[in-house]
Amino acid sequence: MYEFTTRLAATPARVAAILVTTFSIAFATPSLLATPTPATPTIDITKFTYAPKEITVAPGTRIVWTNRDEVPHTVTAKDRSVDSKAMDTGDKFEYTFTQEGDFEYFCVVHPFMTGVVHVRKQ
Amino acid sequence: MLRTILYVESLTRHQETTMDTNDKTPPLAINDRHDPNRRKALSCLAAWTGAAVVWTVAGGVPRALGATTDGKTAAAAKNALTFVQISDTHFGFNKPANPDIVGSYRRAVADIHSLPQAPAFILHTGDITHLSKADEFGRARELFQELKVDRLHTVPGEHDTIDDGLTGYLKFFDHDGKGKGWYSFDQGGVHFIGLTNTLNFKMGTMTSLGEEQLAWLKSDLARISHSTPVVVLAHIPMWTVYAQWGWGTADADQAMALLRPFGSVTVLNGHIHQVLQKVEGNVALHTAMSLAYPLPTPGQEGIGEPGPLKVPAGELGKRLGVRQLSVVRGHRELALIDRPLDR
Fold this sequence. Notes:
The complex is a heterodimer of chains A (about 120) and B (about 350).
Chain A: H1 12-28, E1 42-46, E2 49-51, E3 54-57, E4 61-67, E5 76-77, E6 92-97, E7 101-107, E8 110-119
Parallel strand pairs in A: 1-4, 3-8
Antiparallel strand pairs in A: 1-2, 4-6, 5-7, 7-8
Chain B: E1 4-8, E2 28-29, H1 36-45, E3 81-86, H2 101-113, E4 121-124, H3 134-144, E5 151-154, H4 167-173, E6 183-187, E7 190-194, H5 211-222, E8 230-233, H6 252-259, E9 265-269, E10 277-280, E11 283-287, H7 316-319, E12 321-328, E13 333-340
Helix pairs in contact in B: 5-6
């Protein structure tokens, strides 16, 4: 069992701030990075599953979900603190995880679809 | 396409002055042609009490129809109350499983208009839209204007509430102006209840009606006699069809406990895009076909998920449809007929 221990940024302003920070570090001032920028993991939503269902990333990692199904899905935190809204076929949703923790999420219209992102310092 | 029309016929005729006293619900009026006199007349044609429910099904529906007959009960008496159930139109869907859902819908409209007896109203059991977008709701409303019936009663599906709960849906389909997804009305001696079971999705569980709605249901039912026939609308099945796909309502048992004392209860659901039925004592539960695309049967071999089913050319019209029901005077039976678009 996983516990969702990290409250992720919920307000648009905070999300924007995080994204701006991420882009600034990754693209504007890459020389500031002591370690290589982590790759952007992708998670496909296909056949009513998140693939991979479970993933471990370092803080600051941006993850991109893409809906490959013909019906809408969402990426929604168990506590609703993050919500992609409806993703139609081909739509993408991205989120940058800044704090360590276990991020449990599901699809609000197909709640049997579940996934988890483990955010760990590496 | 499946067609389902309900013909309700008087078993015990009420006095006209006692009828429709609770029918204050202003549903979506079609073409602004609502005729109160016609509506009142229809409502008074079919008051009945204590009817047993026996379902008859015809029309080439391939499975799960235990009470199949040859469908001859479709011919309702001329003074019967008739209505039609449609479901899961998914306006906005444009994928290969059905690239022309508007065309399918219009075939259904033509089919409804060809009925020998015009239905008093139409029930839509949810997933009006595919993505709950404002333009999809607006388009749906335009398309519903093509129906030559007085009224359309709807309940939301999860596709209608996916982003903002009931906010977008209620801008177009707030039936009683109370800002809720649940309501009731009476017509022809039958008590109709619309429920919403698409707002309480929790991770890893089935949806639920929720305490507030159950409390409302209890109070709503408290004011009618147990001999009053009850028809309940809800999008997601009110019994557990297949929990692995979320095809059920977690607290449906609480609603059933409230409905069980009534002599005749008919629950009409959508969501699973196929016809299934279950009978529990006086309670008969039925799911309907979609007008958009078929879905697999629960746990269908070789298919691991409840996604739109691509069927061979020529097959689609056999998997979409509307529903017809009838209760013939003196027979004390409520008959249901599902009829595909292609028969």
